[in-house]
Every structure is written in structure tokens, then in C-alpha cells.
Amino acid sequence: MNKMVKTLIVTGGKTEEDFFINFYRKNKFNYIIASDSGLRLLDKCSIIPNYIIGDFDSIDKNILDKYINNRNIEIKKLNPEKDYTDTHMAIKLAIELKSTDITIFGATGTRIDHVIANIHILKEALEKNIVCKILDNKNEIQLINKKTILEKDENYKYISLIPLTTNASGITLKGFKYPLTDATLKIGHSIGISNEQIEKTAIIDIKEGILILIKSKD
Q1: Which residues have a Cβ under 8 Å from the Cβ of 44 and sit 6 or more positions away?
Q2: Nearest CA among 193, 11, 18, 1 for reference residue 102
Q3: For 6-137, which CATH class?
Q4: What is the mean pLDDT of residues 10-15?
Q5: Where in the chain is the domain with CATH 2.60.120.320?
Q6: In what order do the strands lie in the sheet containing 167-174?
Q7: Is 69 exposed, middle or buried (0-12, 13-18, 19+ CB in 10 A)?
Q8: What is the 3-state secondary structure of the chain?
Q9: pLDDT tens, 161-216?
Q10: Closest CA to 106 of 62, 70, 59
């Protein structure tokens, strides 16, 4: 049985501090990675990361200087003219650390281009069978490409399924208000939006393709 290795990534998007602190206190992580300006939130919450990664174009130098000489923290400075975002590089680092479970805070917010990109880069973890989720105070986002079992979570009212690939086929939903049997979800269609889990245990079966699974509170 593989060892569970849990990694927390904090990046620079919008994060509600109280929600983050509450989640952090209820969970234990093997590694904490600050992605560029995500260090600001960790510093505010007095949480020391194991790694700080980024081109450091958006983090206050005074904050970074507090950690730069800490021998227990590995600093990975990236070239600003790079092919990948700081968040993507943080995911790559988490994979290198042999993470089996990755949680990302600060990956949503007002920069819609960043939000869309952050959802897409979850694919790198998915391809390596690593559970990788984006969390904020309203949503939980992940990618799925195989049978997924959901235990009912009263914190989330709606569950939406959006195809990441052009088509996602063989979709069967059990335990939902709106079930499906061997259906195909296509890009440009909205049939998978705002479903509700009505059974204690629900099943999403998928034969081919990738779905974005979004749990929403309102």
C-alpha cells in the first residue's frame, strides 16, 4: 500500500482567511508549498512553508526576506520568462515530492484567465492518478476520468459536471436528482450544471474523457 503524502499549495488568488485557517487546522500535510504571492497568506497566518516557488514578481520583498535565509525552507526562484505559471510549477514540485493528495488554495478569484488555467493544469496530476483539488470558501474543484464515488457533503448544495475534453462519454450518474445513463457530455452544452446529490452515496461513472467536477455551496 502506497504511503499517503498530502501537500498543500497556497497561490496568489483570492482566499478567505477564516475558511483557510479552519481547513488547515483540521488537516495535516507532509509538505506546504507557497507559490509566489501565496506566501503572503501563509505569513499572515504564521504558517511556515517547506518550499517557496515563483518568479517573485508579485510578492512583497519584505515578506520574502523573512524566509529567504531559513535553512528549513527551500527557495525555488523561477525565470519570469517561463512557459508555466507559478501555480503550475508548484503542482510539478508537489508531484516530484511524490504527493498522493494535493490541495490548492488561492487558485480562484477575479483573474478569470488564471482560474481557467488553474483548472486545466489539474490535468497534470490527474494523469499521474494524484487527487488534486482547488478549494475556496464556496467551491471544491477537481478533474475526474474514471468511476468516482461521492459521499454526501451537506456543505455543498450543487454538483456540476463540465467536460474538459471535447467529449466525455459513457457517463452514468446514480444517487443524483438528475441521473444519466451512458450519456455523452459535449463542450458547449450545459446539461451537467447544478445537479444535486440525493443519496448518501452517489456514483459518477465515466468511460472516456475528462470531466470538471465542481461542488458549490450556493
Answers
A1: 17
A2: 11
A3: alpha beta
A4: 94
A5: 148-216
A6: 148-151, 201-205, 167-174, 180-186
A7: exposed
A8: CCCCCEEEEECCCCCCHHHHHHHHHHCCCCEEEEECCHHHHHHHCCCCCCEEEECCCCCCHHHHHCCCCCCCCEEEECCCCCCCCHHHHHHHHHHHCCCCEEEEECCCCCCHHHHHHHHHCHHHHHCCCCEEEEECCCEEEEEECCCEEEECCCCCCEEEEEECCCEEEEEEEECECCCEEEEEEECCCCCCCCECECCCEEEEECCECCEEEEEECC
A9: 999 999 999 999 999 999 999 999 999 999 999 999 999 999 999 999 999 999 99
A10: 59
Question: What per-residue confidence (pLDDT) applies to 58?
Answer: 84
CA–CA distance, 132 with 145 (Å, rounded to integer): 13
Which architecture, in CATH terms, is 148-216? Sandwich (2.60)
Query: What pLDDT was estimated at residue 1?
Result: 56
* pLDDT for the residue 180: 97
- Contact at 8 Å (CB) between 156 and 212? no
CA–CA distance, 8 with 103 (Å, rounded to integer): 5
Model-wide pTM > 0.85:
yes
CATH 3.40.50.10240 range(s) for the chain read 6-137
How far is CA 190 from each of CA 53, 162, 193, 195, rounded to the nearest angstrom?
37, 8, 6, 11
CA distance 130 to 21: 24
